[in-house]
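Batch manifest, entry 17 of 40.
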Amino acid sequence: MKTEDRANEYLPLRDVVFNTLRENILTGEMKPGERLMEIHLANRLGVSRTPIREAIRMLELEGLVTMVPRKGAEVAQISEKGLRDVLEVRQALDALAMELACERITEEEVRELRKACDAFIRMTRTQDAVRIAQADVELHDIIVRASGNDRLVQMVGNLSQQMYRYRLEYIKDVSQHGRLIEEHEEIYRCVRDRDREAGAKAIRMHIYNQEQSILTRLQEKKRQIR
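Output type: structure tokens
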């Protein structure tokens, strides 16, 4: 399906191209370091080079694309600095969301969280990283929404897009799935029991473990390149 076919009459073509390329980068279909050739992308998406060029500028502003002298645009690398910056903020926001959710979550939302934990377990059996990552996002989103703080929901939503590539990198490591399930269960128990202190501690550790695992993978890749 060409990009024009996916656009609606209210959405500028550059935004459709931007959303398409952004999704490809976030899901790993377009790899870090991959060059963004305007002619190739225009042919692939069935558009002119103008919306491609505009979309690349927008992606650069989001930090998903970098401009390399004499080479042009390429998908931004997943860096240790970028990882730490994103997860430091996410850790603080998720801990706050957890504390608020423990106070404000409804019984219906507790049941939704239980279902989300079970859905995540089922997804790990598929070995499909994208589906597993989506199940993980949905689980965390329930907690953030249960905080009842619209501004917090907005801030986490904006950060989630930047975090998605890191989350996907983590989930690709099948050896981590068992620990992820255990951590989700601990988070669920804290919310169910409305234990603010234990909940905040559990979710901080959850994100810290994610950071350490991804850092290890990045360092291993560096050694392989050398």
